[in-house]
Specification:
about 375 residues; Aspartate Aminotransferase, domain 2; Aspartate Aminotransferase, domain 1; 2 domains; three-stranded antiparallel sheet; single chain; seven-stranded mixed sheet
């Protein structure tokens, strides 16, 4: 029985090794291991890809969110509206700057509901943080209109969506700042933790650069308290290398998604004509999800759940005052969502095997 892994980083390195190792060796031999030309070149390419004037390389997507909120002046007493079905880092970044995460329920496609966002606004609201889940961009037109009407900042949590577009505009290209992760599991992935932020605001970009390096304006003068969130030059070089291959990676993932959708399309939120989905994840929604997951595991198929416990029901969030039933759609999905393997190293017969297994299980259910 051929095992079908959820991710295959070993296959990625095997495919890249011959071309990637000279890049790594040249970076190490160059002696600039923090900052320098490799980081600057990556930032220029990322900004261009996102249609923004500036990109700031950081050491994680989480720090991109935290530092962006800080750079916007958001802190204690402020509220930031976000989705409850994201990874814990989305709300955690808001908590990290002393602000309060306020959740709004989601739609069937797992992305935040603009109507729920509008209903959650209070006099203390300072920003909206839409999360572009699974590789598709949230419904940004109404969200941007709501933000403009109320004078709110928009911080895009685009960790899962680099390369995705909405009405022809790239993820990260809508808000005051777009924040990305380049964690090894992302479509554009480093060989460790990495992240970046993009913006058109030169002053905001400059403050992000200070905050990522102890608040230093130059070698000897700190204008504010910052932290260490620089991207290593080695990760920047690897990301630049992989950025050149990203379109092919996305094409392979979209081809896999098309095969899935041929058999399982009724279980996955439909793609809309105005969106380009990069399929960081391929998520189905089914009853008796955990039993299906066990059934697939017995056939050698590894799956994941993104995410089984909504943020508002996490023990860490108890003090926020939410309880079971606060966000019905999010909670309903949390018991039904299952992420199937979608990575670029799957063969068509692997997709067929997964589809047959899902169909076989549902036929027995």
């Amino acid at each position: 029985m051929r095992r079908i892994p959820f991710v295959d980083l070993k296959a990625q390195f095997a495919e890249e090794r011959e071309a990637l190792m000279p890049v790594i060796e040249a970076t190490l031999a160059g002696g600039a291991w923090v900052g320098g030309e490799a980081v600057e070149q990556l930032e220029a390419r990322l900004a261009e890809r996102c249609g923004r004037a500036h990109a700031v390389a950081l050491n994680s997507g989480t720090d991109a969110l935290i530092l962006s909120l800080r750079a916007l002046g958001i802190g204690p007493g402020d509220e930031v509206i976000t989705a409850p079905n994201s990874f814990i880092a989305s709300a955690g970044a808001i908590i990290a700057v002393g602000a309060v995460p306020v959740f709004a329920d989601v739609r069937a496609d797992q992305n935040i509901d603009p109507d729920a966002v509008a209903a959650a606004i209070t006099p203390r609201t300072r920003a909206i943080m839409p999360v572009h889940l699974t590789g598709r961009v949230a419904d940004m037109d109404p969200l941007m209109a709501i933000a403009a009407h109320h004078g709110l900042a928009v911080v895009e949590d685009a960790a899962q969506s680099f390369g995705a577009t909405y009405r022809g505009r790239p993820a990260g290209g809508f808000g005051h700042v777009g924040c990305f992760s380049a964690h090894p599991l992302k479509n554009l992935n480093a060989a460790g933790d990495a992240g970046f932020a993009v913006t058109d605001d030169a002053a905001l970009a400059e403050r992000l650069r200070r905050l990522r390096s102890h608040g230093l304006a130059d070698r000897n003068n700190a204008t504010e308290w910052g932290l260490v969130s620089r991207m290593d030059s080695l990760q920047a070089a690897i990301l630049s290398f992989r950025l050149g291959r990203l379109d092919a990676v996305i094409a392979r993932r979209r081809a896999n998604a098309a095969l899935y959708r041929h058999s399982l399309g009724h279980l996955n939120a439909p793609c809309r004509n105005h969106e380009f989905n990069t399929f960081h994840l391929f998520v189905i929604q089914v009853g008796r999800r955990d039993a299906l997951r066990d059934f697939l595991a017995k056939r050698g198929i590894t799956t994941a759940i993104h995410y089984p416990v909504p943020i508002h029901l996490q023990p860490a969030a108890a003090g926020l005052g939410y309880g079971q039933g606060a966000f019905p759609e999010c909670e309903r999905q949390a018991s039904r969502i299952l992420s199937l393997p979608i990575h670029q190293f799957l063969r068509p017969e692997d997709i067929t095997a997964v589809c047959e297994a899902v169909t076989d299980y549902r036929g027995r259910d």
